[in-house]
Specification:
Elements lengths: L2 H9 L3 H12 L11 E12 L12 E5 L6 E4 L4 H5 L3 E3 L3 E4 L5 E3 L3 E6 L3 E7 L17 E5 L15 E16 L6 E8 L2 E6 L1 H25 L6 H16 L6 E13 L2 H9 L3 E3 L2 E4 L4 E5 L13 E2 L4 H32 L2 E12 L2 E13 H5 L6 E8 L5 H8 L1 H19 L3 H19 L3 H8 E7 L16 E10 L6 E12 L6 E4 L4 E5 L5 E9 L5 E6 L7 E4 L5 E10 L1 E11 L2 E2 L3 E9 L59 H25 L1
Parallel strand pairs: 25-32
Antiparallel strand pairs: 1-2, 1-23, 3-7, 4-5, 6-9, 7-8, 8-10, 9-10, 10-11, 10-12, 12-16, 13-18, 14-15, 15-16, 17-21, 18-19, 19-20, 21-22, 22-23, 24-26, 26-29, 27-28, 27-30, 30-31, 30-32
Helix pairs in contact: 4-6, 4-11, 5-10, 6-7, 7-11
Length: about 700
């Protein structure tokens, strides 16, 4: 029996079973319970906790889905700020979560969902109608603010924080999933244009009050000390003789001085100088402190590359980052502020006005004939420095009035020789040592206590709020009809209020996409190992090849690697396809199919089959032969003659007799019995071999 005929006989019994397995496997979809190949959802505002924001109809996102071979679907739904401000949603404790003056305020932004048969795109936040992220801060009102002040009442933080909020710049998130023959190609992107923690600290406000009070007291003390009675007694005594000598050179007679007094005053205003310090914000790295208002701002963009963070990065949750913040606060208050105070107070003291007024009467022969006043104007800086800026003004009346022009030059030398040295000594005694350094050191005690009071600042923030950037946990659609299997979600920001109590979780700018793999190519007919029969070895036959693929995919089928003979078609809406190879000759063959979708080419599917000539049936008796001519009877008593020659299909038998002749016996069929027995044995053997092969394969 020919080899192909033998294989045909061995495989015939298993054909139906193999076909059932192949067809059943090829028909399994990527998601048994889903009919959509792509899904997308863009949602500006969602969340959970004590309030299920996902169920609020006014906050519904944009959703689109497309079935295999279906039409493009998509939505672009901007949310109106006025709508958001009108939503009155409260959390436990009567605190409003959304709406005007709520805990969470969100600016105008868009929601986009778009799907087709090959991909899904979702976006939310500061995005265009096509889902593209609007780079930069965006237009006014696009940012979000989380006002945490109403939650402070439950914490014992009166001395640390009185107001607290987290401000966010323009937010956006985008996700795209593109179908492939395996796992989808998924890309995610997000934008957080800025992030700031802003708080008002009573400790900082109290610091400024304390500094102001201390410096005001210092001013009063210094000014009073400089103007203290008796401080100028020695100076007055030192001036009597030189002034008397000067007026007596005028030739007006013998003049004497009486009732001479001196008053020293100063206008030290360190308290006023403090205002120039507190009016300018002090910054170190991410922290800025406005001493005048007590506002502390932490610019998180100085600590994080906000738009390039790993998934699920929680702000202010890293010990190193927090150490930078506390270090910056300490540097501002214990390094920058004292240095600024030193400079400012030194400048204020240098320009503080100092005035000495010496009044004396002038007598002639016991009569009061004139009055003389010496006025010295200078500053603390001049007196404690070079003293070059001091001036002496001479005024008088009576008989001295007409001669003041002559008297003034005579008295001016007293300024440098007597007055300034005396005043320098007086101020040195009052101010003592390094007055500014000592004053700042006194203030530093108050400043240090403020730093200590601010130590729990970040702990307070973390108790009230947790801010996660690029959140990708628990990917899911909020659309109830969607299938979450294989979904990817990116949220620009996830805010958790009172995390320990799970008061509310608010997701700002969320994009979710899902895409099924493309259906792989499969050949459902012929089954692997199928045999086709033709009448003879030189005959041919047409072989149809059918299968399944992604609806609309281009399908190319080659036979025995002959690219020139490739048969091409397009999978129908139900994913089925058929091509036919004409004139397939006797022999073993392999059909290989691939599908192409865009630039993607699937792995090939292949089956082998054979075309064989029909085998000869050994049980066919053929055409009976023509009976032979009877032989001539022999002569009785003689040797028997040879038998006649048999006709076709039969044989003659020798006749007994003495005569000779030609002939044969008639065909009876008994001669085929041995052949029939042999054919039966061969069939039995073939069946046994088939069973044995199946058992071995099993």
């Amino acid at each position: 029996m020919p080899r192909t005929a033998t294989r045909f006989a061995l495989r015939a019994g298993a054909t139906a079973t193999v076909a059932a397995v192949i067809i059943g496997g090829a028909a399994l979809p990527a998601h048994a319970a889903a009919t959509d190949a792509t899904q997308a959802e863009g949602r500006l505002l969602s969340g959970s906790g004590s309030v299920d924001l996902d169920s609020v109809a006014a906050l519904a996102g944009s959703f689109g889905a497309t079935a295999p071979g279906g039409a493009t679907a998509g939505q672009s739904d901007p949310l109106d700020l006025s709508v958001l401000n009108s939503i009155g949603i409260n959390v436990p404790g009567g605190i409003q979560l959304l709406g005007q003056n709520g805990l969470v305020n969100v600016g105008v932004a868009g929601q986009v969902a778009s799907t087709d048969t090959t991909s899904a795109v979702a976006a939310a936040g500061a995005v265009g109608a096509d889902g593209a992220i609007q780079v930069g801060p965006g237009t006014p009102g696009t940012g979000a603010t989380v006002n945490l002040t109403p939650l402070l009442g439950d914490l014992d933080v009166d001395g640390v924080v009185s107001e607290l909020s987290v401000g966010l710049g323009a937010l956006s998130a985008r996700a795209e999933a593109t179908r492939t023959f395996g796992a989808p190609d998924v890309t995610t992107d997000y934008q957080v244009a800025g992030a700031q923690v802003r708080l008002v600290s009573p400790a900082v406000q109290q610091l400024v009050t304390s500094l102001d009070t201390t410096l005001g007291t210092t001013d009063d003390t210094v000014n009073a000390a400089i103007g203290e009675d008796g401080l100028t007694t020695e100076l007055t005594a030192a001036l009597l003789d030189p002034v008397t000598d000067a007026v007596n050179t005028l030739g007006l007679g013998v003049l004497t001085l009486d009732d001479t007094t001196a008053q020293l005053t100063a206008d030290v205003d360190l308290q006023g100088a403090l205002a120039t310090v507190t009016q300018q914000p002090l910054t170190d790295g991410p922290v800025t402190i406005d001493l005048s208002s007590g506002v502390v701002t932490i610019d998180l963009a100085q600590l994080y590359t906000l738009n390039d963070l790993p998934a699920n990065t929680t702000l202010l949750d890293d010990a190193t980052i927090n150490a930078q913040i506390t270090g910056a606060i300490s540097d501002i208050l214990t390094e920058q502020l004292p240095a600024l105070l030193t400079t400012t107070l030194t400048n204020a003291l240098d320009v503080a006005d100092v005035q000495l007024v010496v009044d004396t009467g002038v007598d002639l022969l016991g009569a009061d004939v004139a009055g003389l006043t010496l006025t010295v104007d200078t500053t603390v800086g001049d007196l404690l420095g070079t003293g070059d800026g001091a001036t002496l003004t001479v005024t008088g009346d009576g008989i001295l009035g007409p001669v003041l022009g002559t008297l003034d030059p005579l008295l001016q030398p007293l300024l440098g020789s007597t007055i300034v040295p005396a005043l320098t000594g007086i101020l040195g005694d009052v101010l003592g040592g390094d007055f500014v350094a000592d004053t700042v050191q006194t203030l530093l005690t108050t400043i240090t206590s403020t730093v200590t009071a601010l130590d729990p600042l970040l702990d307070v923030v973390n108790q009230l709020v947790s801010v996660t950037i690029n959140s990708q946990t628990a990917p899911a659609f909020t659309e109830p009809t969607a299938d979450d299997t294989g979904a990817t979600t990116v949220r620009a920001v996830r805010v958790q209020l009172l995390p320990a109590a799970d008061l509310a979780t608010v997701d700002l700018a969320t994009a979710t996409v899902q895409a099924d793999p493309f259906a792989g190519i499969a050949i459902t007919s012929p089954e692997d190992g199928t045999d086709y029969t033709v009448p003879a070895d030189d005959d041919t036959t047409s072989v149809p090849v059918t299968g399944t693929a992604e609806p609309g995919a281009d399908v190319d089928v080659t036979l025995d690697g002959d690219d020139e003979g490739t048969q091409s078609t397009v999978a129908g809406e139900d994913g089925t396809w058929t091509v036919t190879f004409p004139g397939v000759a006797v022999g073993d063959h392999e059909a290989e199919a691939v599908e192409t979708i865009g630039t993607l080419v699937s792995d090939p599917a292949a089956v082998t089959f054979a075309v064989a000539a029909a085998p000869v049936d050994p049980t066919d008796p053929g055409t009976p032969g023509t009976p032979g001519t009877p032989g001539t009877p022999g002569t009785p008593g003689g040797a028997g003659g040879p038998g006649g020659a048999g006709g076709a299909g039969g044989a003659g038998a020798g006749a007994v007799g003495n005569g000779t002749g030609a002939g044969s016996l008639a065909y009876t069929g008994a001669e085929l019995l041995p052949l029939l027995l042999l054919a039966g044995l061969l069939l039995a053997a073939g069946g046994g071999t088939l069973v044995a092969r199946r058992m071995r394969r099993a």
